[in-house]
Design goal:
The structure holds three protein chains of three kinds.
Chain A: H1 2-10, H2 15-26, E1 29-30, H3 40-61, H4 69-78, H5 83-110, H6 119-141, H7 146-160, H8 166-174, H9 181-213, E2 233-234, H10 235-260, H11 285-292, H12 296-303, H13 305-311, H14 313-316, H15 328-350, E3 353-357, E4 360-364, E5 370-372
Antiparallel strand pairs in A: 1-2, 3-4, 4-5
Helix pairs in contact in A: 3-5, 4-5, 5-6, 5-10, 6-7, 6-9, 7-8, 11-12, 11-15
Chain B: H1 20-32, H2 41-46, H3 48-55, H4 66-70, H5 79-83, H6 95-103, H7 106-109, H8 118-124, H9 126-132, H10 141-145, H11 165-173, H12 176-181, H13 188-194, H14 196-203, H15 212-216, H16 229-234, H17 238-244, H18 248-255, H19 260-265, H20 274-284, H21 291-322, H22 328-342, H23 344-347, H24 353-413
Chain C: H1 4-37, E1 49-54, E2 63-68, E3 71-77, E4 83-86, E5 98-100, E6 105-108, E7 113-115, E8 121-123, E9 132-138, E10 141-145
Antiparallel strand pairs in C: 1-10, 2-3, 3-4, 4-9, 5-6, 6-7, 7-8, 9-10
The chains are: A mainly alpha, B mainly alpha, C alpha+beta.
Chain lengths: 378, 415, 146
Amino acid sequence: MKQFIRRWLGERLPMDDIEHFVAKQAAKPLPPHVSWFHTFGSMSLFLLASQIVTGILLMVYYRPTPEKAFESVQFITTKAAFGWLIRGLHAWGSTLMILMLLLHMARTFLMGAYKKPRELTWVIGVLLFGAVITFGFTGYLLPWTQLSYWGTTIGTEVAGAVPLVGLPLKRLLLGGDAVSGETLSRFYVVHVIVLPWAVMFLTAVHIVLMRTQGLATMDPVGKEVIPQGKKVIPFWPHHVLKEMVVFSVFLAIMTTLVILVPQELHEKADPLVTPAAIKPEWYILPGYQFLKYFPKMLGLAVSTIPPLLILLLPFLDRNPERRARKRPICVGLGILTMLATVLLGLAGHFSERDVRMFGGKYHFDHYGIPHRAAKAGE
Amino acid sequence: MILPRSRNSRPLVESDLVSLIPRIAAALVLACAPRADAQADSCIACHGKEASAELASVHAREQPGCASCHGGDPSQSDKDKSHAGQVAKIPRTAIPALCAKCHSDVRLMNPYGIPTDQFAQYQTSRHGEKLAGGDTDVATCADCHGAHGIRKVKDPESPVFPKNVPATCARCHAEPDLMSKHGLKSTQAKEYGDSVHAKLLLEKGDLSAPTCVTCHGNHGATPPGVRDIIHVCGKCHVKEQELFSQTKHFALTEQGSFQSCVTCHRNHLIRTKQEDIRRTCTKCHADETDPARVRFTSIFATIRGAEERLHGAEDRVRRLAGAGFHVDEEEVLLAEAKTGVLQLAPAQHALDEFRVRGLADEAGETISEIHRRLDGKERTEAWKKKALVPIWVFLLGMAALFWRKLIRIRKEEAP
Amino acid sequence: MSDPSEKTDRRSFLDLVLKGGLAIWGAAMAAPTVAYLWPARSGSGRAASVSAGPAKDFAVGTAKMLQAEGKPVLVLRVSEEIFRAFSPICTHLGCIVKWEPAVRKIVCPCHAGDFDAEGKNVSGPPPRPLQPYSVSVVGGEVVVKL
C-alpha cells in the first residue's frame, strides 16, 4: 500500500526531494546539552494545538451573544457528552500554556539562546507571548460570567487611561462605552479568527527560524561550533521520544487538573451588580498590582518598560557569553524580575482579603501589605 | 405631622402666636402655595406651624380650609374679627362628628371614591361607644389619621399605611398604665411584633400581611368574638377554615368550650411550632390511650418527618449546587415538594391522619425523585475521579514505553 | 549476550506494544470528540420552546403542567382557539399554583391567592399577575415559547 502511494505521488511530485527534505529534518542534529528542559517549546506547541482543537469543538455549541453565551457554556458542561472535558481542557489549557511559555522563555533566557544570530526568533517569541496573553484576555469574556464581565471592564479601563489615544482605543475595544454584546462580538472575532491566524503565522516563522538556525549551543556568540559527529542528538527519534515521555506525563497532569480542580462558571454576568474585590486572571495580576503603586499616568508609562526591555533584550545585551555563570548581572537581573513578578502576583492575590495565618487574623490592604486585624469583624 | 400624645395633654398643640419664624414661613407659604380660595389666608399669617403641616396633607389640595373645621372668618385680618365664632381647640368628643360632616356625605365623597361609612362603623366600635359615653381616653379620627397633615392611606408616610398601623395602634395599646385603667392588656403590640405576620409585614414588606385592622377592623374596631375568629383568620387561611369547620373542635367552639384558632395559636403571637401546639392538645388529651392523642401524635410525626425529608433534600441540592453541580431541574422538583409539604400544616386542621399521610407521601415521592437524580449526578462525578486511575496507568505506561524505546535505540547505536 | 533474533523479537514486541498504545491513545481521544459532536437533546443555549403535546389531546377548560429547561410551565386551554401559558410560581410566596376547572380560576393552595384565566391576580395576597409565556398552536401542536 505504502509503495503504491509512493509510486503514484512519484509520478506527480519530486518525491526524492521531498523525502530528502523530510529525512534531513528528522535527522536534525541537536547539540549534546539538549535536555529535558528543551521540551518546553514543544509542550507549548502541543498546548497550542490542544487549544485550537478544543476551541473548535467548543465553537460548535457556543453562542456569542449576551443572552445565550452563559447558557451555552452551561449546556456544554452539563448536557453535551464529554463537554465538561473539552471545556475543562480549554480552560486549564490556557493557564498551562502561559505557564509553559514562561518556562520556555526562562529556559531560553537562562541559556542565552536569544543572542545573535537568534534575536529575531526571540522577538517573535515575545510577540507570540503577547498574543497568547491577548488570547487569554479575550477568551475570558466569552463565558459571560460576572468575573468575565467585570474583569473585562477593569482591563479596558486601563486601556482607556492611556493619554491621547486611550478613550478612542477603549471605545474601539468595547464597541461602545461599556462592556456589552458588541464587546462580546469583537472579542470573539479576535479570539477565534484574528489571533489564531496571527499566532499560527508567527509560530510557523518561529519554528522555521529555529529549524534553519538549529538550537543554540552554549558556545559564546561568534565562537559557535556546529555540533557534529557522535555527540549530536538526532531530532528523530531521540529527542522526539524524550518529548513523548514528557508529553504523556504532562497530559496526565492536565487531565487530573481538569477533573479534580474544575473551573467553575459561578454566576452569569449582571451589568448592574459589581462583585466585591474583582481581580483579573493570574497572568495579568502582577501588572495590575504593579499599577496600584503609581499614580495613573506614571504607572502606565513605567509599566511599558519591562515588556519593552524583554522584547529588545537581544539588542540590549551585548555580552557574548551564553553560560549563566559568565553573565551574572544579566542572569541576576532576570531572576530578580521573575521573583518580583511572582511577589507582585502574590500581593495582588492577597490584597483586599482577610487571611488567618500564624495564629492571627490579617487584613491585606490595597497594596498587598498585611495589617493585623485588631477586632473581629474588621 | 402626627400630633404627639403625652399622658395628660390633649391632642391639639398650642399655637405659637408670637414668633418670627412662623411669620416668615407664613409669608413664604403665602407666596408659594396655590390656594383654591382666599379663605385660609389670614389664618396662615399667624398660625404658620399648623399651616406648613397642613400643606403636605391631602386636604390642602382640596376644599377644606382652616375654617371648615375650626370656624372663624379667614377673610378678616384683624385677630378678634377672624377668631369670631371659632373653636380653636376642638373637643375630642366632637371630632368624629366633625370629620363625618364631609366624610359621611355620599355626594361629597363620591368623586374621590372614598367610602362614607366610617362614622357609622366608628359608632359601633369600642372606641366610638366609649367616646359617646364621654370617655376621652379612646382614639378619635385625629389620633390615627392626624389632624393637620393628613395623608392618604396609600402614602407610606401615613400613620395608617399598613406598615405603620401596628405602631399607631401601639401608641395607646402598648401603654401599660393607660390600658390597665381600662382593664386591657398592653402586651399585644410586642406579641404581634414577634409574630410571623409582623415579620411578613415589616421585614419582607408584604403589604397583604395582616395588621391590627385586618382582624379587628379599622373604623369599627372591635376584638372578634370567639365564634367569629375563624372567619377573621379564614379570610386568608381559607383551607384551614374549611377543614377546621368539619371537625369536633369547631362544634365545641360553637358551644363555647373551645376558642377556635386562638386556642392553639393564640391571637397576636401566633404560635406555630409543633411543641407549643402539642402542649395545648395535651391539656385535654393527656391520656396516652386517648384515640385523639394517638391521632395527633401520628399527625405531628408525619409532618415532622416530611419537613425533615424536605430540609434534607434542600440541603443536598444546595450543597451540590455549591460544589459545581447543575441542579436546575432538581430545584424545580424542590419547589413542587415544598408546596406539597406546605400543604401539610393546613391539612392537619381536619384532624385526619390519613389525609395528612397521603399528602406527605406525595411530597415524599417527589423528594425521592430528587435524591435519585442527585445520586445519578454524584455517581457521574465519582466515575470521573475513578477514571483518573486507568488514565494515569495508561499514560505512565506509555511514557515508560517511550523511554524504553529511547534507551533501546541509544544502546543499539553505542558500539 | 542474547541472540540477535531474540533481540529482534523483543524489539518488534516493544514496537508492537508502542504502536498498539498509540492506537489506543488515538482512539481514546477521538471517541469523546465524536460523542461530543453527536447532537445532544435539543441544541445548545436554552431550548427556545417546549411542546405541550397535540392540541387535540388538550381538552377545553383544562390545564397541563410541564417542565422545561429547569422551569415549570402551566398551559391552559381557555377555549377552542385560545391557549394561555404562565409560570405557575405564585407571585406571593412562591408556591406552585393549580388550575381549578370547577371555578375557572388559578388557585394557590398556600394562602388562597386567586388568579383569573389571564393570569391576573384577582384576590388574596399575590401582588402581581403570573408571568406569562407566549403559546401558540404550530402544526397541530401546542408550543410554548420560553
